[in-house]
Amino acid sequence: MPSSILGKTLLNQYRVEEYITSTPLGELHRVTDERSGKSFALVLLPKEISDDLEAIKELESKSKKLQSINHPNLAKYIGLYQTPTLAFLLEEWIDGPSLKNILAQTTLRAEEVIIYTKSLCNALEALHKQNFLHLNFSPELIRINQKGQIKLSGIANATPLNQQTSRKLNKYTSLYTSPEELKEQTPSPASDVYSLSILLYQLVTNKWINGKGAPKSNEAIRKIHLDTNPPAPISLNKNIPDNFSRMLLWSLRKNPDGRLKNTTELLSSLALSLQISIDKIPPLVSGISAPITSAVLQSWKFLPPPKASAINDTIPLEDRLANVSSPLPKKRQARVMPVFFLFLFAGIFALFFFIRPVEPAVSTLPTITPFVPNITPPPTNTSEPRPTKEFGGQITFTCTRGDFNQVCIVNRDGSGYTQITDMEASNYYPVFTPDGTSLLFASNRNGPFDFFLLVFSQREIIPITNNIGNVISPDYSPDGRQIVFANKVGDNPTAIWMVNADGLNPRLIYTGARDIVAVAWSPNGEKIAYAMSMGVPQEYEIYTMDVNGRNHLKVSQGLLGIGGSVDWSIDGRSLLIHAGAFGDKNIFRIDAETGDFIQLTNGGNNASASYSPDGNYIVFNSLRNDDQADLYIMRADRTNQVQLTNHPEPDWGARWID
What we know:
This protein is α+β, with helices and mostly antiparallel strands. The protein contains 13 helices and 34 strands.
């Protein structure tokens, strides 16, 4: 039994409770949404699919349309999700037996099979009306819920009408594949009729279409689909009406042009053969109309109803930081040392208190570093970037919760999702200090936006600036001594400012013609990149300048719809930005000197990209998942785009530390 994800919680939300079976789409599991307590069906895609960018793009391209399809006999498709290591499909969980459980019983009467026929034809018709074909039939994808409702799942890999069959997602035998698909011809609704008819054949005969058990090899299965006519169902079950048997054979003809062409013809023909009006066919399974199925339902162990989960939105900071550890390990010390130093400091303090002259009280901001001069020292070149483990590091980002922005952290592999702040104020633009021991962010908790520093080891938040304007978009100098940021003072345009890391010496560096909304310090400490408004809402140009505010260079050339974010590559030669039409932004890498650019994403409405510390990965936010901002990660060469977070509310503006 597959166990690679059993017991794990994916995307910090979906706990894998149970492996169910293999399906044409992948390995089916039952998961619990830890936020709602509800169960969902999770189909784990094979690694060759999750690692195939084209296969993922194909699934994504039709996902939104398929998610909008609603029908009582179709399991609701939730969407395609990705973590850094795997990809999966999420669907409504149908709690109850599958058709595989029903086939394990005896043969069904035609009057019971017609109930399945009506439900499944209705499900397929809803799909066909949206110009999709199912083409992934199997007994495992048909389930009956506690109410007796028959539901078809597996529409995530449906094939658009008049196109070649979508690539198969799993190595599942072609027991229900039409001859035209095996010949790589364009399928039609008649292809779904053929697949469904095989299942109906099995229900009334308890045999496959060769009149006995299905072959094991795909080669033998293929030969029967293409060359061998099935025995008449009545020859295998004398209780089947002759006309019903004939109609099933008609729907199983090799040539789709001679076959029953759609679900309406199939349902009408089979109902007529039983002399039953379609509107008289029960919509649900019941004891009288479907005794075999009802007996299976009565013996089925259904799940208890989900328990409502209460979410505490006032968790103390201590608890929120319980799972967030400082990246720098602490050495363990003997307990006697703190006691010794306590007495030593007490003595010094007492001596100082009794002999010092009286001085006026002076209010200063808390000091974070042992010593920071009031004059910015010359920038120094940084060493080679520290390597980031493939699944290591932490990412901080703005997480919108209700009416306010908050600060969150998540591990590189999607685990450890933690909301750091929780208050009726906005907290955003988080960035790690270069050593990773603290987190700087902007907050309006005291009125105007100021910077605050969360020191992980002390588990406290310290103010850095005090009413110097409205500050946003901070970035540290490579040596960690200075902070560059955008600041709006009064009615003046938002300008570029700097301040010492402890909050001393805030100063204006450059005022542009219009608002500047994003800044980034180059890895060698010599340049500042910034995004400045063009005077049109949400339209910016990208510039660089020296750290003293001189020698400005317009970098962006020929790109339209540039957004308000920027980040340097590790070698300092290029910048990450996002640009494109409104509602269709993409991530670009732009040369910091020439303005030449390369597009890194294609669709999804992406923004706010930044590099991992080693420069091998890029994290960004995207609206590709149901127009909801989530974080995604891709390699710097634009391959292997995977989803990192999946919260009902927006996650955006990510920064990375190793």
